[in-house]
Amino acid sequence: HLDPQQRLLLEVSWEALENSGKNPQQLQGSPTGVFIGICGNDYTQRIFSQGPEQFDAYVATGNAHSTASGRISYILGLIGPNLAVDTACSSSLVSIHLACSSLRNQECNLALSGGVNLLLSQEFSINFSKARMLSFDGRCKTFDTSADGFVRGEGCGIVVLKRLSDALADQDNILAVIRGSAINQDGDTSGLTVPNGPSQQSVIRQALANGEVDPTSVSYIEAHGTGTALGDPIEVEAIGTVFGKTHSVEQPLIIGSVKTNIGHTEGAAGIAGLLKLVLQLQHQQIAPSLHFNQPNPYINWSQLPVKVSTQLTPWPTNGKSRIAGVISSSDN
Prior knowledge:
The chain has 332 residues and is an alpha/beta fold. It has helices at 4-20, 42-48, 59-63, 65-76, 91-104, 123-130, 164-169, 197-210, 231-242, 259-262, 269-283; strands at 32-37, 82-85, 110-117, 155-161, 218-222, 253-256, 285-286, 306-308, 313-314, 323-326. The strands form three sheets. The chain has a four-stranded mixed β-sheet, sandwiched between helices. Helix 8 (197-210) packs across helix 9.
């Protein structure tokens, strides 16, 4: 009765450490933190549907979200902070934010952070379908006029985080630097799941300020971009407003959404966007967003300084660093 999400987190955490050049077996007793975004409980529902006579002594530990993160620390002998975060679709990126804060506060010297999402039962898909949240044709058509909902996806991603000064001192292989991050909430909107444009503007500005990043230097935004008729225009409006003074229609900010490529991985959506961004930095190219054929007419494209990436293009630096942002939102 072990939730497959827990097994997947163990496997991917080990792989992440190996890819970082760390020997997982040498971390025992170290102040390494674990910050995991997880919000799905499909496996628990499958167990409960079998009736209490099928329960064993491990149902609770095998399915609790707190144990999903805790088991990583237990297996590896890590004694740093350990958090399971559920903020719905933004869970994994909020986990990244909390991991960075923990590192800055000297609570840990190394952090494993990310998220997981597996689709193992039908109940939530039926619910989302009845709420008319899902795309009718199984395509996530972000920013397009035909956008009619998102597509559910599965995934797991883990990154190994470290203070930049320590990574440089240890001559680690640094794939990217997180300059700053921020989180907030929409507050009182017209509906529980309705986005708040001004709140989105505020959190973008706060992240830029926290990282001491000049908006002029930002050339790409990995948007939340679920492909919904309501959410896409609000998000693009917020992005365009924040960068309106530093970018123009002639020199636009490039935007995209990995959800058009792999679907909406919900609790792992934020880490999926971050990993896509890191890969783009590595390859020095911007990947295309799919299914963008006719721009959403509710987005004021002629006035906003944004452009959707529709083909694989080089990511020039003009002698400067490549700087980008990742946005992850939720209906919590």
